[in-house]
């Protein structure tokens, strides 16, 4: 209930020893002293005094029991006005609305201005002397605001901010500086906060109001009767008889023991009275203890604490709970980087899922018998169907060159995926999952699809490891061996006695060794000492065809050869007459020559074929 304020005038001077005035600190940003007038500004009365208080906050302020004090110098001050409710009820309140004033004046002021509106009257006694002050104290005696004047900016230990405000004069009062309409400055420095001013043409009073406790029997202040309550003649508020459990037979003024309110407002028996929420049935994860309460059943025995349901992100399985993580796959490792291993070793992880994966709940485990576990870098994300590579400069791991393996673990140490054990890593080769099989590859592909090792042509590999041929040799395309150039035969050393030069290898061979393994010649054949081959015996020289003019018979081969020079005879050569017998001899000789040539071709067929092969090879080489 709201009433007008009844202000009790207390003209009691409190001068008892021990009650000293202390300067106000910033104890409140609510009520401030806004104006002080110590005398008539028109010269009509020396006791024409005014004190104005302002609620500088944006909320209504309870000012019950607050008092206005004034004094001079270090004296205790005189209590001139306290704000109390009109009733004796302890819970009633005196309130000052936001941005509202309390205007207090002396009787002399009212005598000069009988039509002036004010809220309270106090006994005169303000002075414009030096070191005079006015203060507001709350109901606990704590100074809320004070102003001390003593000239302008005089240093004072009791003034707010250590400096005094300007003193009121015979024609000017002092007032608080305005920052904006409705907002006054309060820096807790009297010198900065106050200035000289003339009286305003209009003052606003009548804003304070009183609140009466509507229900004195209920703890706390009740500004109005609560809904559904009834106020009796003594001022007590009684609740109406209400059935709190309409679904239960009979009137239930309060909730019956062992019951609780369901979501629809009905009363139901609570199967677990030790739990904060109503349990109409015993939870699956709990058991009743026989006292109306329920004992938690831990469904995650592998986790710390008692878990009645699987935590977020976990799945339950046979009284154990494990992180429910998407799969990740290790696809490539580089244990033995070329050069220094620092920053060169890497581990590649693939995300086969259709969504991005946060690595916060994953770990890396490296090693076989002695293992180490590493966390992924903070904020690590692997894109859907993407690769992510981690080097040993980003994560301080070591992949030994001898043997090791890498696994991906969940935060609760479950294996998500792991690589097979690798052995004797080759420098620069990756241990990679290629076409579903783990193998070494000389084509590392960090962050991309893996590739098989690149294998160069065998001929190129062999040729690159062979020593170069000598200047008089060439590389055979068929055997990849060095062979003598054909032009080198003229520079070869002569074979020893009992040897001959092989046309195939151009090397010296023992005749005796060849002869011992040769097939014996026929009855009409003989062994050619130069070639070690059989040749036909043509008979005695008398049966041979005569050599042509300018030729002679070679006694070693029994063949005709050109005569380099013929000594001129001392007599003329007589012509031989041509006869029928001579013509027959000529035909016979010609037939023998043809037969000899045919035999020679047959006998030397292998050598002739090799000559033609060499010519063909030479022609191809020249091209």
Q: Find the count of extended strands (DSSP E, 2+ residues).
A: 46
Structure class:
mainly beta
How far is the first residue's CA from the last residue's CA? 124 Å
Just give the CATH class of the domain at 2-211: Mainly Beta
* Radius of gyration based on Cα positions: 64 Å
Strand content: 25-35%
Return residue spans where pLDDT drops below 50 for at least 5 consecutive residues: 1-28, 565-574
CATH superfamily of the domain at 2-211: Lamin Tail domain
Largest sheet: 6 strands, mixed
Question: Which strand order spans the largest sheet, edge to edge or round the barrel?
Answer: 10-9-4-3-13-16
Instruction: Give the integer mean of the pLDDT values.
Output: 81
Shape: elongated
Task: State the CATH architecture of the domain at 2-211.
Answer: Sandwich
Binned, the helix content reads: 10-25%
CATH topology heading of the domain at 2-211: Immunoglobulin-like
Your description of this structure?
11% of the residues lie in helices and 27% in strands. It has 623 residues and is mostly beta strands. A six-stranded mixed beta sheet has the order 10-9-4-3-13-16. The longest helix is centred in the last third of the chain and has 24 residues, at 580-603. The chain is elongated and about 190 Å long. The model is unreliable at 1-28 and 565-574 (pLDDT under 50).
């Amino acid at each position: 209930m709201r009433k007008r304020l009844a202000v009790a005038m207390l003209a009691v001077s409190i001068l008892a020893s021990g009650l000293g005035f202390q300067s106000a600190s910033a104890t409140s940003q609510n009520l401030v002293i806004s104006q002080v007038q110590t005398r008539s500004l028109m010269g009509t009365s020396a006791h024409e005094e005014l004190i104005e208080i302002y609620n500088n906050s944006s909320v209504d302020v309870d000012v019950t029991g607050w008092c206005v004090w004034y004094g001079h110098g270090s004296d205790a001050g005189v209590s001139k006005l306290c704000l109390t409710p009109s009733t004796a009820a302890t819970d009633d309140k005196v309130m000052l609305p936001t941005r509202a004033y309390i205007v207090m004046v002396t009787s002399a002021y009212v005598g000069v201005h009988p039509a002036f509106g004010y809220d309270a009257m106090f006994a005169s006694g303000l002075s414009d002397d030096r070191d005079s002050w006015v203060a507001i104290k709350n109901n606990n005696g704590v100074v809320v605001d004070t102003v001390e004047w003593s000239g302008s900016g005089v240093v004072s230990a009791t003034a707010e901010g250590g400096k005094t405000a300007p003193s009121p004069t015979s024609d000017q009062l002092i007032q608080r500086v305005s920052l904006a309409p409705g907002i006054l400055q309060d820096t807790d420095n009297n010198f900065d906060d106050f200035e000289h001013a003339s009286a305003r043409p209009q003052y606003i009073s009548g804003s304070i109001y009183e609140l009466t406790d509507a229900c004195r029997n209920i703890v706390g202040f009740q500004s109005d009767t609560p809904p559904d309550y009834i106020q009796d003649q003594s001022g007590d508020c009684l609740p109406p008889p209400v059935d709190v459990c309409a679904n239960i037979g009979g009137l239930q003024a309060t909730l019956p023991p062992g019951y609780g309110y369901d979501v629809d407002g009905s009363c139901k028996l609570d199967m677990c009275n030790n739990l904060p929420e109503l349990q109409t049935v015993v939870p699956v994860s709990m058991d009743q203890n026989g006292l109306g309460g329920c004992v938690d059943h831990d469904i995650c025995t592998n986790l710390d604490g008692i878990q009645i349901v699987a935590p977020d992100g976990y799945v339950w399985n046979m009284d154990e709970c494990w992180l429910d993580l998407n799969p990740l796959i290790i696809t490539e490792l580089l244990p033995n980087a070329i050069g220094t291993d620092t920053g060169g070793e890497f581990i590649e992880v693939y995300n086969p899922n259709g969504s991005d994966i946060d690595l916060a709940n994953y770990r890396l485990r490296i090693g076989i018998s002695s293992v180490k576990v590493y966390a992924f870098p903070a904020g690590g994300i692997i894109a859907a169907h993407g690769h992510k590579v981690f080097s040993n400069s980003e994560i301080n791991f070591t992949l030994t060159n001898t043997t090791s393996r890498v696994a991906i673990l969940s935060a609760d140490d479950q294996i998500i995926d792991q690589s097979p054990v690798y052995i004797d890593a080759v420098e620069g080769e990756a241990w990679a999952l290629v076409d579903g099989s783990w193998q070494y590859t000389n084509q590392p592909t960090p962050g991309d699809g893996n590739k098989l090792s690149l294998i160069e042509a065998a001929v190129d590999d062999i040729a690159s490891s062979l020593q170069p041929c000598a200047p008089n040799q060439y590389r055979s395309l068929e055997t990849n061996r060095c062979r003598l150039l054909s032009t080198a035969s003229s520079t070869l050393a002569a074979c020893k006695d009992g040897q001959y030069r092989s046309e195939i290898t151009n090397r010296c061979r023992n005749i005796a060794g060849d002869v011992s393994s040769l097939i014996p010649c026929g009855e009409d054949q003989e062994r050619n000492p130069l070639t070690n081959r059989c040749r036909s015996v043509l008979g005695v020289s008398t049966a041979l065809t005569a050599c042509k003019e300018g030729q002679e018979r070679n006694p070693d081969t029994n063949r005709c050869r050109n005569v380099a020079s013929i000594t001129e005879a001392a007599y003329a050569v007589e012509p031989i007459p041509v006869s029928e017998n001579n013509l027959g001899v000529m035909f016979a000789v010609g037939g023998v020559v043809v037969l000899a040539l045919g035999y020679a071709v047959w006998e030397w067929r292998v050598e002739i074929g090799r000559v033609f092969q060499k010519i063909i090879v030479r022609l191809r080489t020249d091209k």
